[in-house]
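Summary: Need help interpreting a holo structure output

Steps to reproduce:
1. Submit the protein chain below together with the SMILES for zinc ion.
2. Request a joint structure prediction with the ligand placed.
3. Inspect the structure token block that comes back.

Expected: a single structure record containing both the chain and the bound molecule.
Actual: see attached output.

Input attached:
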Amino acid sequence: MQDKILSLFEEQLQTWPLAAKGYRGLNDIRTKTFDFGAYAIKVQFNPARAVSTLAKLDAKSIEARPCFLCAANRPVEQKYIEFKGVYDILVNPFPICDKHFTIASKKHEPQTIKGRINDMLELAQAMPDFIILYNGPRAGASAPDHFHFQAGNVDFFDNQVDIFKKGLIEKQVISSHLKSVVVDEFDTLYNQLQTDEQEPMMNLFCQYKPEGWVLTVYPRKQHRPMQFFLQGKEQIMVSPGAIDMTGILIVAREEDFEKITKEDIQDIFRQVS
Ligand SMILES: [Zn+2]
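--- attached output ---
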């Protein structure tokens, strides 16, 4: 399975100019590292992410735009590989990772994780050199109306997922070599985190390792910090999703990359984690 997916990636770079441009753009990415003692937080300047970072996510805006994950609206060059007859694995043309995929449901149906953890675990097993990630509908998903996972190559994350960032980013780790144990423990945690009718705000990371599955849950307090909504010099355009929660904060504007401080980072995570 993974070989097929990697072949799709290579083929798309040859046949789809937008994807080729997106991955070439990764060469221009700049990164700063902030030392927090036991761990580090990286800030990545990635102008290609502006579309996603600045996306309007209110129900009206979502309804008004053609859904970019529906097969009928995808670019003709964009090919896919089927997974379980339920999902299409697609190359993400606006990458953060060196190899970045979107795994979209074949149906236009809402982003909700209930009943899908088993699929997430199977995807992780089928793609052992990747981490499968999930952004909740109110926690960073850029298409809350169309169910999707993402996948990014493991080496991009540089162990950031595994390192505990005590006092800054909260997370819970579920691991087992038994699929059913991971599913059950996740369901229990889901119920503990749930405070209203809606899905608890969260980002998920899943990796299949030789010893079994590791599912990391990042519970969220809000999607965007207040800095996002400020004006002028005070504004910092960050819109944290799963990747940001590992400690790789993505900014799409150069001015934000230049001015962001350690205090800003602490304040941002205090609001969203
Ligand atoms: Zn759709």
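--- end attachment ---

Reviewer comment: Residues 179-193 form the longest helix (15 residues). The chain has a mean pLDDT of 93.
Status: needs-info
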